[in-house]
Amino acid sequence: MNGSHLFNIWAPSDSIWSRWAKPVLFAEMETVMPPSTSIDWPRIDIEQDQGTAIVIDLPGDLSVRTGIALAQDGYRPVPLFNSASGMRKHGLALTLVDVSFTQKMLMAGAERLLETHLPPNAPPAFLLDSNRAGAISPTPGKFDNRSVVFPQDFPSANFLLSHGIRRVLLFQRGGMHRPASDLAHVLLRWQDAKIELFSYDRDRSVSMAEPLKVIPPSNFKMLWQRAIAMIGLRRSSAGGFGSVIPEPSSGGRSGYG
Amino acid sequence: MSPDETFALIICLVVGAITWIKWYWEASTVAHLSSNVVDRSSLFLTPLLAALVLLGVLKSFAAHDVRDDGQYIMLYMLMGSAWVGLTRSALGFLGLSARDDVIERKNKAAGYAVSGALLGITLCFAGGNIGDGPGWWVVVFTAALATGTFYLLWILLHLFTSLADTVTIERDPAAGVRLAGFFVAIGLILGRAAAGDWVSAEATAEDFVKTGWPVLFVLGAAIPFEKMTLPRTDRPSSETFIYGAMPAALYIVISAVVLFFKGPWA
To answer: Cβ neighbours of residue B68 under 8 Å, at least 6 residues apart?
Structure first.
């Protein structure tokens, strides 16, 4: 199996949500290796509700594991990881956002996902990596795969509502009342369309989900918001973000267009 | 060709090569799992169509010393490729991106819109080539007037209708076709407004406003139509022929009527 086959498992053509799935991490997989150790897949006691979509903003590997757990409850996990791994060419030590565990979980979770036999109209659980902004400072020679998400990466409020989604549950850790600033652009558009938003701390019980009120982030709905947000980020030829920060004496590419 | 024309030719050759090699490289190689060649076909074909349009205008309406001289035709073709290659980058800052929307998100609506924008900008540049003038810088001046107005009208249309969101977030193909029609329609009028024999910069700007103001008819038609067709929960996207191709044709017909009444340039 290669990355393309694996992507087709995570984004099957019969699911209406697959058009939003991101193939960035899959594009870099030449061969998919089965996991060498057994993985402890968590369980989340959540009742499937056709009117609820889920956004999981947790560290990448945990996001995938949570997505697989939700698939057991009838949700279709939709990977929206936008950071290229850079592993094949650059190695882990030089990468600003470590996505290697996320990739491994995507490989390991595929078989389990196939076993769930999700129907095409299963409600979506969008998977994000909460570490996408990176924690290490970008310096020359490093592989800069920091990324952001945009409203263009998600279905519109009209699309969600037209498919019966009236509630969105945001899974995150800490900062219960404050989504990441890039995600706030997405959630606020949904909130403005009267979609109910709830925030849920992954380490607590789902019954403790709290209503979420998103405040307008900077440049909200501005024509140039996407271009401004991309300043300083580097694109990857696999799609999404990721390329080496050039040494001062050499040229490099970044920006928009 | 004079030394400054040769210099301009070399600059345009370099800029055109850089911008279009990057364009075709991205269209051919980037994010191959996100979209296939068919999804990206408009990105491959539209620049070629735009080049044909420009060549047709140069051979038919440019000054006699240009249209009958292969070197000048080459100079202005290269200038056109550099002009469109450079100025289309502004689209990315103004909500529409070939790479982000068409290549990486397989967004058909954006594919239509970006194609329309390329053709519209080409028409703005082509208009600057019509008529007699003292040199290549006259073409740059008038093309800048037309292209700047082109982007201003796009910003205004978005401010009133959020059309960039309808194209890039709602991904409504009909909205993409309408926007393509809008871009071509305003490109026709702005290109016509940029045409004419050179007298002075002031006279050119004055003539541009006098000839180009009917572009507001197209904007005036587009704003209410976009507001009427805003995506709703019961209609997240609209039927492409009725709500896309027909309004786009209407915008272009408005431009054709304006061009007809304006008559030949002076």
So the answer is: none
Residue A15 CB coordination number (10 Å):
19
Return the structure tokens found at B119.
Answer: 């053709």
Q: How far is CA B75 from CA B82, B139, B229, in A?
A: 11, 11, 43
- Interchain CB distance below 8 Å, A240 and B236: no
By DSSP bridging, strand A196-201 and strand A210-211 are antiparallel
A233 at interface of B, judged by CB pairs closer than 8 A: no
pLDDT tens-place string over residues B217-236: 999 999 999 999 998 888 88
Q: Where are the domains of chain B?
A: 3-262
Q: Give the three-state DSSP class for B134.
A: coil
Q: Which residue has the tokens 């982030």?
A: A217
Pairing of strands A243-244, A143-144: antiparallel
Residue in B169, B172, B179 to test binding to A, most A beta-carbons within 10 Å: B169
Cβ contact (<8 Å) for A156 and B231?
yes
Distance CA B154, CA A167 (A): 34
Are B87 and B65 in contact, with CB atoms under 8 Å apart? no
For A146, B2, B167, the CA distances from B95, given in Å and listed in that order, are: 21, 40, 9
Site of tokens 């929960």: B233
- The domain segmentation of chain A, as residue ranges, is 3-33+44-244
Pull the structure tokens for residue A255: 């920006």
**A17-70 residue pLDDT tens:** 999 999 999 988 877 776 666 777 777 777 778 999 999 999 999 999 999 999
Q: β-strand A76-79 against A52-58: which pairing, if any?
A: unpaired
| CA gap B74, B187 in Å, rounded | 22
Read off the DSSP letter of residue A208.
Answer: G
* CB within 8 Å of chain B, chain A residues 126-165: 151-153, 156, 158-159, 161-162
Q: What one-character DSSP code corresponds to residue A235?
A: B
Q: Of the candidates B32, B155, B171, which has its C-beta nearest A27's C-beta? A: B32
Q: Which stretch of DSSP H or E encloses residue B77?
A: helix B70-87
